[in-house]
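Troubleshooting: if your tokenizer reports a length mismatch, compare your output against this known-good record of 173 residues.
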Amino acid sequence: MRTTDGRLPGPEIWIRGPVPAPEPPPGPYAAVTGPRRFSWLGTHGGAGVSTLAAVYGGHDCGRDWPGPGDPPSVLLVARTHAGGLDAVLRTLEIFRLGQAPAGLDLDAVVLVADAPGRLPRPLARRARLIESVIDVYRVPWVQDWRLGDLSAAPPRETEPLARLTDPAARRTR
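Known-good structure output:
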């Protein structure tokens, strides 16, 4: 069976032409127009979100998703103990499956030492697994922070994290 102009019928796209993709619905988050700010999101209780937000700046979400007025760029925070590493893996899976609130941008994971010294081998393996799928920033044990003194400069080992979160050093993405 031929069409009125003598052509064989085909898929509708060939008859009416390509159809533009629908616009995605806008998320509840405003576009970032200035220096990029971050929301610190703890993957478990006691991750260190409040301390990191106080030291490096940004919004302290605690364990709640950022709200509509909060920065949509998320830094996940977890301690380096077994429960903390498992919690960050579960939260990464939520982002991977698209189950996180629309409009959030997962930037990196921040692993905060749960004790002084090196990680035991099984925990180091889990941390490397996380590093294989996303950027990870490590924060060593800081005794002064444990005692409530947040006035000192951040540890030298955290310079990459300080550059990431420093409004003066950031570029709009």
